Amino acid sequence: MHKVYFGEFMSTRLFAAYLNKIGHKARQYDAFEIEIVTTDEFTNADILEATYLAVSKRLLGDWSKEKSVPIVTSFLGKVRRSCAVTTLGRGGSDLTATTIGKASNCDVVLVWKDVDGVLTCDPNIYCGAQPVPYLTFDEAAELAYIGA
Question: Which parts of the sequence belong to the Aspartate/glutamate/uridylate kinase domain (predicted)?
Answer without folding.
Answer: 6-147
